[in-house]
Every structure is written in structure tokens, then in C-alpha cells.
Amino acid sequence: MKIVKGTPPNFDEIIKVFPMAASRGVIFAWGDTIYNPDGCVIQPPLLAHEGAHYQRQTNDTPAIEAWWKQYLVDAEFRHTEELIAHQAEYKAFCNHHTDRNHRGAMLDHIARKMSSTLYGNLISLKDARGALR
User: Fold this and answer.
1) pTM for this prediction
2) CA Rg, the chain, in Å?
3) Which range of residues forms the domain containing residue 111?
């Protein structure tokens, strides 16, 4: 995947639905491109997260556009896509960290992110922790 400092083609549509998406550090997968508006360092677990979105979107522009349109209006679809991506993120972290305390802290971090307003409060924190395990 390539990383571009900038916003995805549908950024205005995204922030209309999810104003928090304009916050510092939020990145976006658009096919094989990760849009990184702030130019922040992207750690390997988050690359795995965005890679999961890429695999689901493919690299065909009409398919990517269709994925994003559904993501923005369909909470169930968004929940499924974010669960897959957050699980990939946690797995990537665990592949490189064996310490239970570090894993537990990362599980909490990812669960808080997954249950946040950024994604529309799709799941409770408790349920997000359980789904990520």
C-alpha cells in the first residue's frame, strides 16, 4: 500500500457523516492508498487495519466508491468492516508483542477506538473488547 499525505477523494462526504474523521491522526484507506492528512507516522498494526479495508475494497475504483457509499450509510456494514479491520490491527500487534500487559493495554486502546464516536458508536466498549479477543 502507498501512503499519501492528503485526504481521500470523498473526504467531504466522510466528514459530513463523521465530523470526528477530520481529527488529527485519522487516516483513510482508498483502495491501495492510505490517505494520511497529517502525515503522522503509521505503526504496523494500523497498517494492518488499513490493509484489511484495502482487501475488502479491492483496487477497482467503482468497487471502492461502492464500498465507501455503503460504509457511510449502513451501520451494520460499517460495524462488520471495522470489526474485521480492528481484529487485523490487534492480531498484528500481538504477532510482535508477547507481553500480556502490553497486549491488554492495546486491546483496551483498540476497543475504545472501535466503540468511539469516530465510527458512530456502533458497539459498547465491553462488546468491542469481547469481539477483539
Assistant:
1) 0.94
2) 14
3) 2-132
